[in-house]
Amino acid sequence: MFRQAAIRNVRLFSTSPAFRKSPVETAADAVKSVDRAVSDTLVKGIEKGEEGAAKAKEAAGMTAGEAQQKATEVKKEAEKKAQDVKKETEKKM
């Protein structure tokens, strides 16, 4: 009789335990989702900036090399003008 009572009081075994997240895991998941949203927004902003830079180059009709050459030319012209002004001021003194 004792055996029968023991067998009847045995609880059933379940392989799917209730899954509950701790407060730390919940907070970590929230931080991850916020981080992902912020990084996605920043990436979109960077991409828009790159697109704008490419459009500006196209509008100016110059490649990077052409822009560098033009900058060098302008620099040389500015140096020549500075020397001319220096010579004129020396003559006046």
UniProtKB/TrEMBL annotation:
Compositionally biased region (Basic and acidic residues): 72-93
Region (Disordered): 51-93
Start-end of Low complexity biased regions: 59-71
Full protein name: Uncharacterized protein
Lineage: Eukaryota, Fungi, Dikarya, Ascomycota, Pezizomycotina
